[in-house]
Amino acid sequence: MVWSTVWSDRRWWRRVADGEETVMAHQQPEGERPAGNGPQSTERGFDKQRNLDAARNDPAGHHLTTDQGVRVAQTDDSLRAGDRGPTLLEDFHAREKITHFDHERIPERVVHARGAGAYGRFRVYESMADVTRADFLQDPELETPVFVRFSTVAGSRGSADTVRDVRGFATKFYTRQGNYDLVGNSFPVFFIQDGIKFPDFVHSVKPEPNSEMPQAASAHDTFWDFVSLQPEAMHTVMWLMSDRAIPRSYRMMQGFGVHTFRFVNAAGQGTFVKFHWRPLLGVHSLVWDEAQKCAGKDPDFNRRDLWTAIEHGQYPEWELGVQLVGEQDEHAFDFDLLDATKIIPEEQVPVRPIGRMVLDRNPDNFFAETEQVAFHTANVVPGIDFTNDPLLQARNFSYLDTQLIRLGGPNFAQLPVNRPVARVTNNQRDGYGQQDVHVGTASYTPNSLNPGGCPVTASPDAGAYAHYTQTVSGTKIRERSPSFQDFYSQATLFWNSMADWEREHIVAAFRFELGKCEHRHVRERAVDRINEIDHDLAVAVAQGIGVDEPTATTTNHGRSSPALSMANLAGDGIGTRTVAVLAADGLAGGTLRPLLDALTERGAQPELLGLHDGELSTADGDTVSAARAHTTVSSVLYDAVLVPDGPEAVAAIGADGEARHYVLEAYKHGKPVAGIGAGADLVAGLLDAALPEASVDGAEQGVVLIADPADSDAWRRFLDDFVAALAKHRIFTRDVDAVAA
Ligand code: HDD
User: Fold this and answer.
1) Which residue, of 19, 69, 116, 313, has the greatest Cβ tally within 10 A?
2) ipTM of this model?
3) Catalase core domain location, by residue (predicted)?
4) Which structural domain, as residue segments, surrounds residue 595?
5) 22, pLDDT greater than 50
6) How far is 250 from 255, CA to CA, in rounded Å?
């Protein structure tokens, strides 16, 4: 019997749907039960959570035991000869406890060590049968469980979240046909074209080997030495210098499969495909000064943001899109589809939205799930295949290999988070940590000893993977194709597509990064490379880092792609935006409550930050609770800052240097700042003092003030203006350089 027969068994389906009993794999009656880690069926499809239930260990209602299940009476003192005597070897409990602790750590991922994960679901909008036979892309009614892990690349497991880096965006689809892993990044391109360069690239960006500095940063000599000697990196370097490298939230970040993959339909026909994830909250980033401060104020900034949103039921969503290219058009572009340093401009091939993913459950245990999850680009299902992209080919080797050392042997696919919901049956045996109890005498194919010679192979019609049929020929050669040799056109395309503020941030990023390089020749060579992208950009960078401006003038091709600019990807909602509402005793409760309600109704998250924690007395004799004291957090951890009304409270806020800093720092970072009544006077006064030369208020500048909150028209306008400013995310038209914050 093959699994498809088991799982289309109507009897079992009915039992689950009717809720007659909780059915788990290990409770299935003999004959119906899938051996090992079988699929878990629900009305909605195949439920990974049921599959995980078997592994969940909840201490509620249980005694403390040894690993052998023996109950423990005392775990605070080791067994000893006399109360001041030596510890006895006989103390099996102490030895087991300490030994297990000694072995708690496993090697961190060699890249992408720092990450955060969540479970969710994916559903396709309409059948994609015309291009792929992948089962999870056929039926809009079918929900496929997923686990997603976001990560930074260069830093260690304990490094800060908000460093300048690419972000990993890896999705494991637990499909009925087996696990499909889309192991992507937040940039659509990569630094190198051939995987054989990956160790070189990673060694260059990791901390320098003599000093192990700097942590989680590309701003050092070895990185810039490498990328300036390996110019294929320059397109991705442009993305790295842009604000894309400091996302406001994983929930506000695009994801890309990067490579050109191949869809294959039931007729065996192939179509090239690039994958795109688009966040429904829009694409937003931090600013660099803020990102650096966040790294100290809250090193878990992005991880906490994802966790908290899911805990609050604000489930992040992404739309999956594809760019499809017919095989006949493989050579229709001025770049090679197999070159992972290139995008297909969306103006040339539009992104077709095909489905939606929502993340709605945090893991129960970071180590068991987020740390032990093992992604692999070669985890594909029927209907999805590879291309000859040499970066992808190397990845198809590396991911399996790395799990063997990281997770300690070949049975990592049996770890709960990695277990497919599809039935696993094969003749792979033994190894460290084997979880399955394989039954039967024959562990080979073909055999005549197991009933029916099982496990037997299946035909593609019965769901077996069929590799795309392709004629391959060629001379054995260690050489890059001439079609991979254009290193700069798309870097220029990216630069040309940026809004003014994006360009300013890129110049500042180059100056910061290269300004950290000790070797002058590295700075100079990097400027030469930038000059190949755009002369004006290179001049601007050179001026900031004290090297000669490049004399060679280069020609910018002038093309742009609007889809590349974050200015065009902002979205318009304020869902989950955080607002720091500064508060002190004596604040005006009458205007505060409707304000908080109005923001909350629109999905934002205002937080009352008291000059002290606990209850705050309001001017009308009531009390409100502070969410926390303002000294425990910082303006950089919020999307906007607001000072409410109440002369007594505002006087106290105005007298507190840290509270004043909230307003000025938020302004410097382009965030909306708002004030009500006396609070408006304070905000205006602070900004006037900081920028005496400039006219800084005005809703269009994101400075939203209301003098008289009792004026209902003005109040409505105030709310609308504040919401509109929040939706813009940042106001980058401000001149903030003079603000000392
Ligand atoms: Fe990789 C991890 C994404 C090129 C070798 N990679 C890793 C992760 C992501 C990516 C998201 C973390 C997965 C997780 O959360 O567990 N990697 C990419 C992308 C690439 C890329 C989008 C280019 C398009 N990677 C790449 C190359 C190689 C590797 C060329 C090797 C030849 N990557 C690895 C690895 C890692 C890894 C060493 C470390 C931990 C792991 O695999 O599980 O095998």
Assistant:
1) 116
2) 0.99
3) 65-453
4) 578-728
5) no
6) 10
